[in-house]
Amino acid sequence: MIGVRYYSSQTRSFPRRLATRLARLPEGAPHASGWKLWAQRLFGSSKPRMARLQDALVRELGLTDRVTRSMVQNELHQLHFHNPQADIKTPTLLVHGHAASAMAFHRNFAGLSSAVQDLYAVDLPSNGLSVELPLELELPPPLPLRIQLQNDTFKLPYTIEPLHQRAVVQGFENYYLDALEQWRLDNKLGRINVVAHSYGGYLSFKYAAKYPHAVAKLCLVSPLGVERNAFAVDNRWSSNTAYPTNYTDPASKYYIPSRPAIPKLIFESQTRLLRALGPLGAKLCWNYIAAAYSRVPSVTYKQYVFEMFYGKDGLSQTSRDIFTGLFTNRLLARDPLLNCLEHLRVKDLMLLYGDRDWMNRTAGQQLAQEANSIGITADYNEVSSSGHNLFLDNPEEFNQRVVQFLDE
């Protein structure tokens, strides 16, 4: 998931911050012509450019002697860092967020592979350089769960079928969960540790719950979808009945955050909207990347992210469809993690956030607290001077906290 640096509600709103990033190139950032960026990507796949940029980025890191890159079963792209001198023997997998790839962790590869004997990072199916696998759902789309807000109450205008809703959500999730399990088996791995960011954190939690034999330790890095909420499929709302809205407590099933919803067109179109704007969209996309990743020194990485965002097939339709099927346009999960905690069987759990994170840190604290109450050893920690992309903003401290967690 692509993040923005945290500001308090007393400063600028999210739409204003986003508009600023889109419209204004940060001081010192490399300039790019929107017309040139647009013209170069009118035709053809973005995958060859992404592959070339990834090659260049690995060379920049100086890790070519430690990493092996491959396509597992000609479907899933992975990087495997092998260091037999490292102390942590349990294989560890890094899982990226939405609109991202394994290269999101490029600033962490050196530090983590110095401590972990076998470190893996994968592009999820239909992301990055992995193949766009077919999405096959056995059920038709359910009736949309629309909630009507009025003053401090909400209601549903009609009755929904919760079992149908849950079955469709599980179908979307299984697209990724089963692929991760197949990846583990193809690599002939036993129990693994998983370190996963944002949307990848949500998916990795669900993977650990579905395949409890597969995961030893789970580190959720600013995970998406933690909060209980009024849109959750397990709620049993009656139609045309007013319920009190809770704006502050992410542990409440009545929770709806006070922040505005993302407009439906933007939420459903995502990066397609940028391409539809032509040269202007290309320029706005470059401005946003330069601002959102201002603390990342590599221009190559920014170019790589641009290919994912603006390239013709950088972000697949399948990945967009699954994301919008699992989350509302308020970025609330239809099957939130707090509702699924009883199914988790990991040995240890860590919640890790940036101290300036826009993600709901109170929800992370609640998840750690409830996990401890059912016998899972869980910790909550924050990385200083960092936002949602904490592993990019402060890689040294991030690596230190992750290694300490994995090594205990």
UniProtKB/TrEMBL annotation:
<feature type="domain" description="AB hydrolase-1">
    <location>
        <begin position="93"/>
        <end position="400"/>
    </location>
</feature>
<dbReference type="GO" id="GO:0004623">
    <property type="term" value="F:phospholipase A2 activity"/>
</dbReference>
<protein>
    <submittedName>
        <fullName>LAME_0G08284g1_1</fullName>
    </submittedName>
</protein>
<dbReference type="GO" id="GO:0006654">
    <property type="term" value="P:phosphatidic acid biosynthetic process"/>
</dbReference>
<dbReference type="GO" id="GO:0042171">
    <property type="term" value="F:lysophosphatidic acid acyltransferase activity"/>
</dbReference>
<dbReference type="GO" id="GO:0055088">
    <property type="term" value="P:lipid homeostasis"/>
</dbReference>
<dbReference type="InterPro" id="IPR029058">
    <property type="entry name" value="AB_hydrolase_fold"/>
</dbReference>
<dbReference type="GO" id="GO:0035965">
    <property type="term" value="P:cardiolipin acyl-chain remodeling"/>
</dbReference>
<dbReference type="GO" id="GO:0005743">
    <property type="term" value="C:mitochondrial inner membrane"/>
</dbReference>
<dbReference type="Pfam" id="PF12697">
    <property type="entry name" value="Abhydrolase_6"/>
</dbReference>
<dbReference type="InterPro" id="IPR000073">
    <property type="entry name" value="AB_hydrolase_1"/>
</dbReference>
